Amino acid sequence: VRLEHDLRRALERGEELWVAYQPIVEMVTGGLAGFEALVRWNHPERGNIPPGVFIPIAESTGLIVTLGAWVLREACRQIAEWQDKRLPGSANLFMSINLSTRQLNDPDVVSLVRDVLRETGAEPSWIKLEITESAVMEKADQAIRLLQSLRGLGIKMSIDDFGTGYSSLSYLHKLPIDSLKVDRSFVMAMHQSEENRAIVRIIMDLARLLGFDVIAEGIETSADANLLRALACDYGQGYHFARPMPAADADRLVGAEH
Ligand code: G
Ligand code: G
Ligand code: NA
Ligand code: MN
Predict the structure, then answer these.
(1) How many helices (H) and strands (E) does the chain have?
(2) 131-167 pLDDT tens trace
(3) Atom 23 of ligand 1: nearest residue by CA position
(4) Is the CATH number 3.90.226.10 carried by domain 2-256?
């Protein structure tokens, strides 16, 4: 109850919440491909409260509607700013933004995204929305329609934490998505055994067969990165490349590119 109250206050004041950006790199070149926006809460008395703690509270209280809209707007505003400073001809950066289960069940999310794109000047092709496997499978037919509408705006969709939910393979090929994110538990287990490497390989083969890009998350060592490169993984994310960082630091990365 206390945290709920405090989160509500944080959303009203708009001073304690901020967005961290974690680089996503192209595996072949090592170049910056995009960022994932990750919300952070700096509580005035308790310090940093992990999103694993406050996102579930936001979900169960409905505060996620306001919080999700705030993160979306902030991340879209940021990518529009970064695109503006890039040289013409340089590859487009994308911004990956998490959508919670609750947002995925809200038909208003389509008009929210449309409005935020218009307000911030972000182009739909720069935006990728991440949804978890379980959120989609919970109400698959409804989710598929919503994914179609979102993609109809021109934005990209990605399945997060792939392999940890109960994904029905019979649905996977029907999902209107662009990429799969291999859950970090698989990536982190790769060095342990050939079996674990085979699991990652099979997820990648499946993704390619279905026409999806693959993003591996939780890459912590150069050994992991090499294994994934050998599997022709498209994009990578993890502490080996960079941790989630404040916008000012990410801004320097964007600027350092040319
Ligand atoms: O940095 P990490 O501890 O940031 O994130 C923990 C979890 O919180 C992850 O599962 C991540 O997807 C989730 N998360 C981070 N930011 C957001 C957000 O803006 N919206 C939603 N729905 N989840 C988020
Ligand atoms: O659930 P989701 O995939 O959205 O979560 C992203 C989370 O993963 C964030 O909490 C982020 O801080 C964390 N993360 C990013 N890179 C790494 C990594 O290399 N190792 C670990 N353990 N966590 C990571
Ligand atoms: Na995510
Ligand atoms: Mn994930």
Answers:
(1) 12, 9
(2) 998 888 888 889 999 999 999 999 999 999 998 877 7
(3) 98
(4) no
